[in-house]
């Protein structure tokens, strides 16, 4: 790993990412479906061919050009999950502009900070979004944000919910149907994306053109065992890296049919995913453990009613998947005939780092198994920083050599790339996650390194205690954090949610405590177990441990940046519940 973070692939090569994802296929297979849009309302869907995609992207690019967008400019995109969002991203790529997609659930403050940090001159939004039947007033959030974004000169508004679309049509007609491709250098930035913010101030992670595209396409092809004719559904939002790599760039570069899912897993009912798989004949389905757990609590009937015979590969991403959820996914959704791919990667890595390959790697539920081609993981001793040789070791997960999809910089702050990722362990890329390499050479992510809790000198991973808690038949989800303890250094505070139908009684807390003692040992005996209705999550579904730590420490005066929180009410409920324990 170069100490200054200089990485390049295909040096001096030229390409245009949009040409690879659109023009190539519009010529070869113009009638193949590029996008299937599944609207929030299950009766709304659209199919867009590669030919249509080409026309729409060209029109969009010409509009951006007319508004002054040029090579290397940055463009902010604050849009719902609709085809126009994909047109906007690809139109930027066509012109060589760097896009910065901000998830359409962020508040005006978060949006302002991101647009400002990215130096966007032009922004693209829609009148409104809709998710789970709830309207999101995107344009008015944007208006609020733009009050404090002096650099933004133009705001393009797409009328998604509005009935009167004359305004857009008028413009579209004036637009030429072809837009030339801007030749780009291999290392020119394709986009930046702010990380989800589970651990602090968001960073604009910037990705390259050639290396990123290669990595997104290759991992999409091999990890999901993609073959022409497959219908690939990654239900992540394009506001996250998973949407960039596995809704847009990976599948389109391979000429696949990719699904854009606008809704949420439980709208209008908990069969939404399964209904959609049956309706579109989906072959690969990719979601997050949090969604799987949320659907599990509703029971198997919602799944078993549907014909899921088109499925071949089921993927998960975002956090470790607990073995119970893994088995449910494998048995109830996959009917024991689909491959499960538990993919471990980050916004910073562009694509999968650790993952099984369907049919080629024997799975162990809860392990992301082995590295993808060319990735060289190492497990370092956290104190000495030395690589731990051999198997059956536990430490900090780092990567030894660059791979094509590796981030190239933190936008506007290259020092931050060095400080956060390259300097902590000299010569390695630091993932920030802990890992075990077991006796068979399989990797198990034990959670973020800063989630380790030091109880009386014993370093306990929050993930292992959580795994123990969810063994309880009633427990749906658990999050464990440390808090200052006068004797032990740190004590264990466990937040637990229970399944809908489970009746909590006086003994439940003791049962939960006993499971942890039995599974891990008396050293891990929880100090507090709080049964709560919900856990605070980021909008991408990750538990915000930073907040849980503050609540556990009874330090709720200043909670820091909570703009990525999905539901603010959850936090006040937790604070109230925790107060009763102090
Ligand atoms: P921030 O960096 O702003 O705190 P974040 O790390 O949650 O946000 P992402 O880049 O979306 O943002 O998430 C990457 C992290 O998610 C990984 O570092 C890891 O902790 C976790 N993760 C992702 N996939 C897996 C997986 N399959 N198994 C275990 N952990 C995973
Ligand atoms: Mg991260």
UniProtKB/TrEMBL annotation:
Ranges for domain AMP-binding enzyme C-terminal: 464-542
GO MF annotation terms: acetate-CoA ligase activity; AMP binding; ATP binding
Alphabetical list of Pfam families matching this protein: AMP-binding, AMP-binding_C
Signal peptide, first to last residue: none
InterPro entries assigned to the protein according to its UniProt record, in alphabetical order: Ac_CoA_lig, AMP-bd_C, AMP-bd_C_sf, AMP-binding_CS, AMP-dep_synth/lig_dom, ANL_N_sf
Entry keyword set: ATP-binding, Ligase, Nucleotide-binding
E.C. number: 6.2.1.1
Organism domain of life: Eukaryota
Keyword Repressor: no
Annotated SUPFAM superfamilies: Acetyl-CoA synthetase-like
Domain AMP-dependent synthetase/ligase positions: 23-409
Enzyme class: ligase
Reactions catalysed according to its record: acetate + ATP + CoA = acetyl-CoA + AMP + diphosphate
Family: Belongs to the ATP-dependent AMP-binding enzyme family.
PANTHER family, per the entry: ACETYL-COENZYME A SYNTHETASE (PTHR24095), ACETYL-COENZYME A SYNTHETASE 1 (PTHR24095:SF14)
Protein name (database record): Acetyl-coenzyme A synthetase
């Amino acid at each position: 790993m170069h100490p200054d973070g200089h990485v390049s692939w295909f040096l001096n090569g030229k390409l245009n990412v949009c040409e690879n994802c659109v023009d190539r296929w519009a010529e070869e297979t113009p009638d193949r479906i590029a996008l299937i849009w599944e609207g929030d309302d299950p009766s709304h869907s659209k199919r867009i061919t590669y030919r249509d995609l080409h026309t729409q992207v060209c029109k969009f690019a010409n509009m951006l050009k007319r508004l002054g967008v040029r090579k290397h400019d940055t463009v902010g995109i604050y849009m719902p999950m609709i085809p126009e969002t994909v047109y906007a991203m690809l139109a930027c790529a066509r012109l060589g502009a760097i896009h910065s997609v901000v998830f359409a659930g962020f508040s005006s403050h978060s949006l302002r900070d991101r647009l400002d940090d990215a130096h966007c001159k032009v922004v693209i939004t829609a009148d409104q979004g809709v998710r789970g039947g709830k309207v999101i007033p995107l344009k008015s959030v944007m208006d609020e944000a733009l009050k404090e974004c002096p650099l933004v000169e133009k705001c393009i508004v797409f009328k998604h919910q509005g009935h009167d679309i004359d305004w857009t049509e008028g413009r579209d007609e004036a637009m030429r149907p072809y837009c030339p491709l801007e030749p780009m250098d291999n290392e020119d930035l394709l986009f930046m994306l702010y990380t989800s913010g589970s651990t602090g101030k968001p960073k604009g992670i910037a990705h390259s053109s050639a290396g990123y595209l290669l990595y997104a396409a290759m991992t999409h092809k091999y990890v999901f065992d993609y073959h022409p004719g497959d219908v690939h559904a990654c239900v992540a939002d394009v506001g996250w890296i998973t949407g960039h790599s596995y809704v847009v760039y990976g599948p389109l570069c391979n000429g696949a049919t990719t699904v854009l899912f606008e809704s949420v897993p439980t709208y209008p009912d908990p069969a939404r995913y399964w209904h959609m798989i049956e309706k579109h004949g989906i072959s690969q389905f990719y979601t997050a453990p949090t969604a799987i757990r949320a659907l599990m609590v509703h029971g198997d009937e919602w799944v078993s009613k549907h014909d899921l015979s088109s499925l071949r590969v089921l993927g998960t991403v975002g956090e470790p998947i607990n073995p119970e959820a893994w088995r449910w996914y494998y048995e109830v959704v996959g009917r024991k005939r689909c491959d499960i791919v538990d993919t471990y990667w980050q916004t910073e890595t562009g694509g999968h780092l650790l993952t099984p390959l369907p049919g080629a790697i024997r799975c162990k539920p809860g392990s992301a198994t082995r590295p993808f081609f060319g990735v060289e993981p190492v497990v370092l001793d956290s104190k000495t920083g030395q690589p731990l040789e051999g198997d059956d070791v536990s430490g900090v997960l780092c990567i030894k050599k660059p791979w094509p999809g590796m981030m190239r910089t933190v936008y506007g702050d290259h020092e931050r790339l060095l400080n956060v990722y390259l300097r902590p362990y000299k010569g390695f890329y630091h993932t920030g996650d802990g890992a075990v390499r077991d006796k068979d050479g399989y990797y198990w992510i034990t959670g973020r390194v800063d989630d380790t809790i030091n109880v009386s000198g014993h370093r306990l991973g929050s993930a292992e205690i959580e795994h123990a808690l969810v063994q309880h038949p009633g427990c749906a989800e658990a999050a464990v954090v440390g808090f200052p303890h006068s004797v032990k250094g740190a004590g264990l505070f466990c937040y637990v949610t229970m399944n809908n139908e489970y009746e909590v009684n006086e003994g439940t807390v003791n049962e939960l405590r006993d499971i942890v003692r039995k599974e891990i040992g008396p050293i891990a005996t929880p100090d507090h177990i709080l049964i709560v209705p919900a856990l605070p999550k980021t909008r991408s579904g990750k538990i915000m441990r930073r907040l849980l730590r503050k609540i556990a420490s009874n330090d709720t005066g200043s909670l820091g940046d909570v703009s990525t929180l999905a539901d603010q009410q959850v936090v006040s409920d937790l604070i109230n519940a925790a107060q009763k324990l102090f």
